[in-house]
Backbone:
């Protein structure tokens, strides 16, 4: 991930641990998605094929795995937009070249 946007210069991570808040958005997206996916699996596999709850739960977890990278990425994007909406001070978004080699 870039330190700052190459076009407009907005700094993505303002301080250490900046994206910790993105975990809340990730949780808020993943739980309803998992419930919906479990419901669909229950309708198809539970009622249709007679799978038990334990197997439906495991199948739901396995079906969620491919969506992990998208959840990670989009939760960070949502967090950045939320943070900019709440704290839109331009002083926090100045481009400062990172120190080091």
Residues:
């Amino acid at each position: 991930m870039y330190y700052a946007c190459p076009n407009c210069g907005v700094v993505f991570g303002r301080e250490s641990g900046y994206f910790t808040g993105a975990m809340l958005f990730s949780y808020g997206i993943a739980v309803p998605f998992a419930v919906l996916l479990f419901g669909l699996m229950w309708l198809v596999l539970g009622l249709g094929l007679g799978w038990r709850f334990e197997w439906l739960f495991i199948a739901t977890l396995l079906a969620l795995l491919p969506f992990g990278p998208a959840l990670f990425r989009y939760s960070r994007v949502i967090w950045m937009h939320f943070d900019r909406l709440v704290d839109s001070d331009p002083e926090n978004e100045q481009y400062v070249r990172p120190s080091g080699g």
